[in-house]
Write a structure and sequence with these properties.
There is one protein chain. It contains seven helices and six strands. Strands 1, 2, 3, 4, 5 and 6 form a six-stranded parallel sheet that branches. The protein has 183 residues and is of the alpha/beta class. The structure holds flavin mononucleotide. Residues 40-46, 72, 75-76, 79, 109-113, 138-142 line the site of flavin mononucleotide.
Length: 183
């Protein structure tokens, strides 16, 4: 009787591990199919991006402007002009293997009540159709929702997942596990 119990327990453990790791489910997604792309001017969003990558096992890609943004006061003007002109500022390089990713977190500071234009350049420079794009942002107080119309319009064919304004670092872990992407 004891032996039978042991066998059943072993069978259950075996089945559970096959379900978790055997068929390319969440474990595989956490292992290599998540990308965390971000633009950060002052480093706050970069910190959140690193945290998301650590918690999901995703790969990081930094959106680096070809022309660096100037100091803060001038940057306010440059960013405003980019928005007014619907500009698409260039970024360095690109993700080499975008086709490999199912889920793309995209992070940015809120600039002038919206996503920075360079983030739209990034979204439009990649084929995101069929992928889940999950926005996250930091800001001085503006909500993430200010930027979602732009992200939706530029991430053609993607499903937009439940994003977050991550000004409070403590919000990141519960959000990631709520999404089901914790590694
Ligand atoms: C050009 C510019 C525009 C900004 N516009 C806004 C804004 O509209 N609303 C807001 O709450 N914060 C705004 N901020 C503040 C940033 O969103 C905030 O400091 C953010 O956390 C910076 O992230 P980073 O360190 O990743 O660059 C702006 C900052 C800059 C430089």
């Amino acid at each position: 009787m004891k032996m039978k119990h042991k066998m059943i327990t072993l069978a259950a453990v075996f089945l559970a591990s096959v379900c978790s790791f055997g068929f390319g489910g969440r474990a595989e997604a956490a292992g290599g199919k998540i990308l965390v792309a971000y633009f950060s001017y002052q480093g706050h969003t970069a910190g959140v991006a690193r945290e998301i990558a650590a918690q999901t096992g995703g790969d990081l890609f930094e959106i680096v402007p070809v022309t660096p943004y100037p100091g803060y006061d001038e940057c306010l003007d440059v960013a405003k002009a980019e928005k007014n002109n619907n500009a698409r500022p260039a970024f360095e390089g690109n993700v080499e293997n975008m086709a490999d990713y199912d889920v793309v977190f995209v992070g940015y500071p809120i600039w002038w009540y919206d996503a920075p234009m360079i983030v739209l350049t990034f979204l439009e420079s990649n084929d995101l159709s069929g992928k889940t794009v999950i926005p996250f942002a930091t800001s001085g107080g503006s909500p993430l929702s200010d930027s979602l119309d732009s992200v939706r319009a530029s991430a053609a064919g993607a499903t937009i997942g439940e994003g977050i304004l991550a000004n409070d670092a403590g919000d990141v872990a519960p959000w990631i596990s709520g999404l089901g992407y914790a590694k």
